[in-house]
Design goal:
Elements (H helix, E strand, L loop, with lengths): L4 E8 L5 E9 L6 H12 L2 E3 L7 H18 L4 H13 L5 E3 L3 H9 L25 H9 L16 E8 L10 E14 L9 E4 L1 H5 L10 H13 L2 E3 L2 H14 L1
Length: 257
């Protein structure tokens, strides 16, 4: 039920190495809802403090376990940074949206001894599937932190379109400080879904105007709103990803598998 939309956030270093890939679903994300949520996330992630003093002993333990898994099974060079960035994103999601796999969900798995440092039963990076049906705990970590342009879409239902936030740092991962993180480039992209009555719908890149002119957006998003939104992006030095750039991103990831 609802007009479900999807936001994929990819954070990478200056060389294009992934630091985080995560997915947010909005139950009622049509119209201005996901647009404004994405803008709120993008404008609050340009510089963050990732020092997390004051955490309880239990929370510290959860973080340690997740960071071990992020390094071992996702290959992240600085898992503490990956962990902190996703937690920061979670602060700015509007009430209609939520991370597909929340940090609280992962903490609960650790508390129940279902999530530990062990071999996963299924590798969704090598064998794409309907990801929300996979119940392997380690794969939940990968879905939560390591989604890609070529596999994020199958993490949840989507019948109302999608958005992308791509962030890039000015330095390679080896030179990034764990005490402070700065982003040098932020881009927003858009996509549309195929016939949502299909068993396995697909998506294709679109322009902002094409996304805004979908049938359930037309009466909510005016020309003036589009103009003001683009002005806010420019003011915050946020660029638009072209459909060609999104096509290339998905194609390059498929070729590198």
């Amino acid at each position: 039920m609802g007009v479900k939309t999807q936001l994929f956030i990819n954070i990478e270093d200056a060389n294009g190495e992934q630091i985080l890939g995560t997915v947010i679903q909005y139950q009622w994300g049509y119209g201005k809802v996901m647009l404004e949520s994405a803008l709120d996330i993008a404008t609050n992630m340009d510089s963050i403090d990732i020092i997390d003093d004051g955490k309880s002993e239990e929370q510290t333990l959860y973080k340690l376990v997740l960071c071990v898994l992020l390094k071992k099974y996702c290959g992240f060079k600085k898992p503490e940074l990956t962990y902190a960035l996703r937690n920061e994103i979670e602060k700015y999601i509007c009430c209609s949206g939520g991370l597909i796999i929340s940090t609280a969900d992962l903490n609960a798995l650790i508390a129940d001894n279902e999530l530990a440092v062990k071999e996963p039963a299924h590798d969704f990076q090598k064998a794409p599937c309907r990801l929300f049906s996979v119940d392997d705990p380690v794969e939940r970590v990968r879905r939560a932190y390591m989604a890609k342009y070529n596999n994020f879409f199958n993490q949840c239902e989507n019948n109302g379109g999608l958005m992308f936030i791509n962030m890039r740092t000015a330095e390679p991962i080896e030179r990034l400080s764990l005490g402070h993180w700065n982003v040098s480039e932020i881009k927003l992209g858009f996509g549309l879904t195929t016939d949502t009555y299909e068993k396995h719908p697909k998506w294709h890149p679109s322009t902002f105007n094409q996304y805004a002119r979908q049938i359930f957006n037309r009466n909510v998003i005016s020309d003036k709103y589009i103009e003001n939104y683009e002005r806010l992006l420019k003011k915050n030095r946020i660029e638009m990803m072209s459909p060609d750039e999104l096509h290339l991103r998905r194609k390059e990831e498929k070729l590198s598998k």
